[in-house]
Specification:
This protein is mainly β and about 210 residues long. The chain is built from 2 helices and 13 strands. The chain is globular and about 45 Å long.
């Protein structure tokens, strides 16, 4: 199978010189990313599908919720307000923020597991990832002011709070957690908290 890769550029870029919480399937999640200053940080989410005998994996480009996957270079259409979503609306991303100068939340992703149709025996995982845009050069999270991620459920209960600037100072990306689903069973959220130094395409390769 051809590996899925995305163009890690945005319009206007210069050319480059095992804790878990049991939740109902009706639960919804919101991932909030906040930071200050002129760094460019992005939220990404993946919809990996599998079966009882095969682990969940990426197989199609339309399973990648990322600003790098927007048309025309990618496959996801952008709405008039800048938001974009996977087909079916299970994963919805806010408009892409190019810096952290806005008040409050800079980017968010909303996940509705009920909109992920699973056949009997099918499984799904939704890895949740924050990454520095490679156009920012050799920056690490220690060079980003007050970068933090909060994950809450639909009742506002905080499931995860991470200070990326402090806890993942030497990383360029972090997998904060994963939402896991299995046909006929409640969804579970598992914090992960793994930092990495690869670019986003190398991260994608690890889920294929």
């Amino acid at each position: 199978m051809t590996k899925l890769t995305l163009n890690l550029a945005k319009p206007g870029d210069a050319k480059p010189a095992a804790l878990s919480l049991n939740l109902t399937k009706a639960e919804r999640f919101t991932v909030k990313l906040l930071w200050d200053g002129d760094a460019d940080v992005d939220l990404h989410a993946l919809l990996c599908l599998g079966t009882a005998s095969t682990p969940p994996a990426l197989t199609q480009a339309d399973q990648i919720l990322s600003c790098y996957n927007l048309a025309p270079n990618g496959v996801l259409p952008k709405q008039a307000d800048g938001r974009f979503a996977l087909p079916g609306g299970a994963l919805v991303h806010s408009a892409d923020a190019r810096d952290g100068r806005a008040d409050g939340v800079d980017e968010y992703i909303e996940i509705d597991p009920a909109k992920i149709p699973l056949a009997p025996g099918q499984t799904a995982e939704v890895p949740l990832i924050a990454m520095l845009h490679p156009g920012d050069g050799s920056k690490r999270f220690r060079q980003v002011q007050n970068a933090r991620v909060e994950i809450v459920n639909s009742s506002g209960q905080q499931l995860l709070l991470a200070d990326l600037s402090a806890q993942f100072a030497n990383a360029v990306g972090v997998q904060m957690g994963t939402i896991m689903l299995q046909s006929g069973l409640p969804a579970t959220f598992s914090p992960v908290g793994v930092g990495f130094e690869q670019d986003f395409n190398q991260v994608l390769a690890s889920f294929q």
